[in-house]
Amino acid sequence: MSPRGLSRLCLTGPSTRRAAARWVDAVAATGSWEAVHCPLVRVVGRPIEPAGVTMLPAMVAVTSQNTIPALKRLWQERVDVREAPHAAVGLATARSLRQAGVDPVLVGRAEESGAAPLADAIARATQPGDRILWPRGDLASDLREHLVLAGRVVEDPVAYCSEEVPEAELPDPIDAVFFASPSAVKAWLRRSDAPRVTAIAIGATTQSELAVSYSRFQRLLRLPRPTPEALASTLATLRG
In this structure, are strands 176-179 and 59-62 parallel, antiparallel, or unpaired? Predict the structure, then answer.
């Protein structure tokens, strides 16, 4: 508990202060918790080589806002990719695509894994054998698996990597910790100074990563929806 009498949440993600602002504000709105932004992983963009995209995609799948900088550079040299239909996970990613000048034809549900609902939507909008371009993070593989099972051909260049932030200093004291990705969980578990507190996962994939080492935490919780409002509601329940 902080000197102000508020319970403290270590917010290990989103990785940037700008992206984390809504989460910090939502936690503060509870009146009984404060969030300390302490990202344990950072995103490092990687370019997508135009020559490495060997196909004309029937659709471009965008599952993270982190891929959009690489996509914007790719669009400059590959007009065919820019003009292909785009599908996005969640309103935030769709909004970022529109701001970049591309209006997605499909917007899947904004849940952490995101793969199954978006893959289903893409499968309904395309035909077996169609080619799907999926710019992805270096640790992601789920969308490809779903689409290949649906009979689509997937090209999945890496558009960003997740790197651990070894210099991150955990706040002290901490009453709970929030994880927005499995990579943040792994980074936490590698730290010798990580306290045994309540862990809150943004969604199913992160919850699964936590469950492997459940004894390192007092209890494990998962948000009903991957939103700042859901985090605030969960924290209010904890406080009560």
Answer: unpaired
Q: 3 phi and psi, to 5 degrees? A: -60, -20
The rounded distance, in Å, linking the Cα atoms of 154 and 93 is 20
Residues facing 222 on adjacent strands: 201
Query: What does pTM read for this prediction?
Result: 0.79
Digits of tens for pLDDT over the chain (240 positions)? 655 688 999 999 888 888 899 999 999 999 999 999 999 999 999 999 998 899 899 999 998 889 999 999 999 999 999 999 999 987 888 999 999 999 999 887 655 445 778 888 999 999 999 999 999 998 888 889 999 999 999 999 999 998 999 889 999 999 999 999 889 999 999 998 999 999 999 988 889 899 999 999 999 999 998 889 999 999 998 864
Is 3.40.50.300 the CATH classification of the domain at 44-161? Answer: no
CB 30 within 8 A of CB 236: yes
- For residue 46, the surrounding DSSP H or E stretch is none
Same CATH fold assignment for domains 7-40+170-239 and 44-161: yes
* Domain-wise residue ranges, the chain: 7-40+170-239, 44-161
> Which residue carries 């893409």 as its tokens?
122
